[in-house]
Design brief:
The structure holds two protein chains of two kinds.
Chain A lengths: L7 H8 L9 E2 L17 E5 L13 H4 L5 E7 L6 E7 L8 H5 L6 H15 L18 H12 L7
Parallel strand pairs in A: 1-3
Antiparallel strand pairs in A: 2-4, 3-4
Chain B lengths: L1 E7 L2 E6 L11 E9 L2 H7 L10 E2 L3 E9 L11 E4 L2 E2 L5 H4 L13 H8 L5 E2 L16 E4 L2 H4 E3 L6 H4 L5 H11 L7 E5 L3 H12 L4 E6 L2 H11 L2 E4 L5 H8 L7 E4 L10 H11 L8 H9 L5 E4 L12 H6 L3 E4 L8 H9 L11 E3 L4 H10 L7 E3 L4
Parallel strand pairs in B: 11-12, 11-14, 12-13, 14-15, 15-16, 17-18
Antiparallel strand pairs in B: 1-2, 1-4, 3-5, 3-9, 3-18, 5-6, 6-10, 7-8
Helix pairs in contact in B: 6-7, 9-11
Classes of the chains: A alpha+beta, B alpha/beta.
Chain lengths: 161, 391
């Protein structure tokens, strides 16, 4: 795998992420279930194009570290050399929320979904991409424009799962 | 600064907007030299991609000069003359490393919108709606270029601005179609659409060794450009039965590769077009797949159909039976230009790819509304309206 980071410590140094001392982690290439055998539901996952040895679940980037012991973390190699799967879920395991809630970023895991995406960017690229403030002209208020504005605001937290 | 903006459905404006600033370490700020209209912009103007807000800056195909550099940029310096790929990609995720740049995981700050539409989010694109990131477009004096080490390419000294401009989108999109469709030496390739992208797909197919390349359109001036500048054969679909003609040209087989470079507002004579128009206007389908249907019917058994024109959502009366029973490969993509631009610029410098003829009308940003009107209505033989912000 080309372009891998030198190690997890360098990830934390570059991203400003703190040590998550009480995060539980499971590294299991053969199972999609966390320790204890409970159902796997509730995991939000991204695949990082980094070797599994470079992703230390106790040393996560700041957006995930901020959740401290409120989240569980799972790290395992991705199939076919695609990197490392990083999965997180809230320890309290609230209901997943309906599809409309998830698509509008109003489900219980919306903030965690956003944090996971930002963590992926920090690990792979080293920074979180910002789009605003983007130059634009007059925002004439229209019903469609208001709806799109709301959806755009929610889009970083929204997702199908 | 002055910019051409989307004001509403079929309404283009010219406004003063704030200048962009460096927001990320990998950004550069570009002083835009040339920025061109694209057929896919018409889908935004027509309201077929309903994710534009009044005031959004249009434009995604452009070149210019670097005037400011983020501290993480290593390839570019102030003063560099560059062309920028219309799609934004990080260069670090698995998709980018596979050469599938438009599928980048990290370049769309609004992933929830396209996840809802398509199940997965793709990369970002300049000036192409909030669904693809809400990035400001290039029809302006300045534009911010994220991930500039990945998407900006220095233009060789011997290549003019007018030629390099089309290495931003039309040419790499054409290359994406021909290469990803797997064009092989000896193939017969048919391309639907003789706009900039269709012409470049035809040129790419020829350079990849296709034995015969045929481009299908209805506008005489565009077909003439194909014969003169691209070196391909042409068919006018208003006066010929295209599938029958293609069968005759290929000994009854049909083309090995069919590239559809038309998109969601396809046109054709007859009741099928009326049917698609009505369904689209009633929002019973978002896209008109007329040319895709024809490509599927025309393609040889076991051949490949590539959807290179832009589609957004759902279509009706899709000939899935033909796809299955003829064992077709049906594929598509936005452009993975980052992998093709170096080759394209090299071929431009050797005169193997010529694009100046596409820029039929060059004007200032003040003429933005006029330029889009001429482009949409094909006034005065307009193939592409190009804006020169410094004019």
């Amino acid at each position: 795998m080309s372009g891998a980071l030198g190690g997890a410590a360098s990830v934390a140094a570059r991203t400003g992420g703190g040590v998550v001392r009480r995060v539980r982690s499971v590294v299991s290439p053969s199972s999609d279930r966390p320790a204890g055998g409970s159902p796997a539901s509730g995991w939000l996952a991204v695949t990082l194009f980094r070797p599994v040895t470079d992703v230390d679940p106790t040393l996560l980037p700041a957006p995930l570290a901020a959740f401290d012991d409120r989240i569980e973390v799972r790290v395992r190699p991705a199939a076919g050399g695609k990197g490392t799967e990083l999965a997180v879920r809230l320890r309290e395991r609230p209901p997943a929320g309906s599809l409309p809630q998830r698509l509008s970023g109003r489900d219980p895991q919306a903030d965690l979904r956003s944090a996971l995406r930002r963590a992926k960017q920090l690990i792979e690229v080293g920074e979180v991409l910002a789009v605003d403030p983007a130059p634009h002209g007059e925002r004439t208020p229209t019903p469609g424009g208001v709806l799109l504005e709301k959806w755009t605001e929610a889009a970083p937290r929204a997702g199908v799962r | 600064m002055k910019a051409v903006t989307w004001r509403g459905v079929n309404e283009v404006g010219v406004e003063d907007v704030p200048e962009p600033t460096i927001l990320n370490d990998h950004d550069v700020i570009l002083e835009v030299g040339l920025s061109v209209t694209c057929g896919s912009d018409l889908h935004l103007l027509g309201g077929y991609v309903p994710a534009m807000r009044a005031g959004d800056v249009l434009g995604h195909e452009f070149m210019g000069t670097v005037v400011e550099v983020g501290r993480g940029v290593t390839k570019h310096h102030v003063g560099d003359r560059v062309v920028v790929v219309s799609f934004i990609a990080c260069g670090q995720c698995w998709y980018c490393r596979q050469g599938l740049w438009s599928l980048c995981d990290n370049a769309n700050p609004n992933p929830g919108i396209t996840e809802a539409l398509w199940g997965q989010s793709i990369g970002g694109c300049f000036g192409y709606s909030h669904a693809l990131g809400g990035w400001a477009g290039s029809h302006a004096r300045y534009v911010r270029v994220p991930y500039a080490d990945q998407g900006a390419f220095t233009i060789p000294d011997g290549v003019s601005d007018e030629r390099a401009l089309f290495a931003s989108d039309a040419a790499p999109t054409g290359w994406t179609g021909a290469h990803q469709a797997g064009v092989q030496p000896g193939d017969v390739v048919a391309v639907w659409g003789a706009g900039g992208v269709g012409q470049m797909a035809a040129r790419a197919a020829a350079l990849m060794g296709a034995e015969r390349v045929v481009v299908i359109d209805r506008f005489d001036n565009r077909l003439e450009q194909v014969r003169t500048h691209v070196g391909a054969e042409t068919l006018d679909y208003t006066d010929t039965d295209v599938p029958a003609e293609l069968r005759e040209m290929t000994g009854g087989r049909g083309p090995d590769v069919c590239i559809e470079a038309v998109g969601m507002e396809a046109h054709r004579p007859g009741p099928q077009h009326l049917y698609d128009q009505v369904k689209q206007q009633l929002r019973l389908q978002s896209d008109r797949p007329t040319a895709v249907r024809e490509a599927i019917y025309a393609c040889r058994k076991g051949g490949t159909v590539f959807t290179l024109g832009v589609f957004a959502g759902l279509v009706d009366k899709f000939p899935l039976g033909a796809v299955m029973n003829k064992a077709l490969t049906l594929t598509g993509a936005q452009q993975h230009g980052h992998r093709y631009v170096p080759e394209i610029l090299d071929r431009m410098s050797r005169d193997e790819v010529r694009t100046e003829h596409l820029a039929t009308h060059v004007m200032s940003l003040d003429d933005g509304p006029k330029g889009y009107r001429m482009f949409k209505d094909k006034e005065d033989g307009c193939v592409r309206a190009v804006f020169r912000p410094g004019a």
